[in-house]
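Revision sheet: structure tokens.
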Amino acid sequence: MKDSILILCGGGPAPGMNAVVFTIAKTFMFRGFRVMGLHGGYSGLFSKDPQFEDLDFRHADAYFNRGGSYLAMSRFKPSQEDFDKNFNLGLFTDNNIKLLVTVGGDDTASTANRIAKFLREKNYPIANIHVPKTIDNDLPLPGNAPTFGFNSARDEGAHIARTIYEDARTASSWMLVSAMGRSAGHLALGIGEATHSPMTIIPEMFDRTKITLDKIIRLTISSIIKRKTLGIPYGTVIIAEGVFHDLDPEEIKATGVSMTYDEHGHPELGKISKAVLFNDILTPELRKIGLSVKMRPVEIGYDVRCVDPVAYDLSYCTELAMGVYDLYSKGETGCMVYIDPLGDSHPLYLKDLQNADGKIPPRRVNIMGGVAQNYYRYICHFITPDSYEAAKKYVSNPEDYDFRKILNWE
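Predicted:
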């Protein structure tokens, strides 16, 4: 029986999924391996009837450059009971699987480690290699290397945000734009910088002060007023969804905005538009200070996850996939594949990346680094001491809207 490899995709989609999966398929099949694609992510490994198929060249050549994921994905995360009662060991033994390739984020990587350990305990040693994926760009790769999918999602997000900005300019209005990024603000900042948005709000900004709704509102108003003093009656505010997830749930509840709550009384933020939420909170605050502004909410979310990958991600994902074969041929296991700037592959061992809880801590935006600081210094518009006098035309207390005072960046 041929040696086989099994590929599965966990979490949510990102541009380049198919490029990774089918380049792996091409690389291994032409070296004599059987390549199996598993549908349903990890749920397939804990099923009596796993849905898998052999991947061949025709499939690979037809799908490698498309958006979405040919292999159906899942966020299924097995419990210890699943391992004890439901693990389908026969899938591995019956098909002579030598390598499990997982494509996903930190949870997918951590579960791959658990599965490899479980199989070793069952006297079925298997290599496992993980390909880091997330449009949030929050996995800790060396040298600030991006996770695949980020650049394509940023490109599509910037395309949407450029159109939105033009709409705001044409209609003399403001657009509130929410971007994905639950743990980090890379995507929101990338979109804000690329589109010259006059304000981008990400959770990392609050490194020296507690994040509150009041501060988020004042940062937004600061930009609106500054632009008014410059004779610019329009703009966009890009806000990372992670800002709302970092807030005290009681703050959101206290606003009275209509939404559902889980069994612990926490707002179910995953079910609503963060842009609409912020718009509903901001609008009455603008009325309170007598600021007349046309405001519209726009969500950038699921529309950037399944776009066709840009050339950068097509090339990068191809290199990652070839790196999987390179690492496997060298006997590596329990690692993520990393491609350095010269295109060489290296193993990043998951045991070295994980914390005491078995999680890989997210890579957050370096808020004091050059990318962030230059954007806020030179592109953003907000109130500073030299604009207090002009701002008094709109508010009696401009110092309360001073960007650096709000963030305690002085």
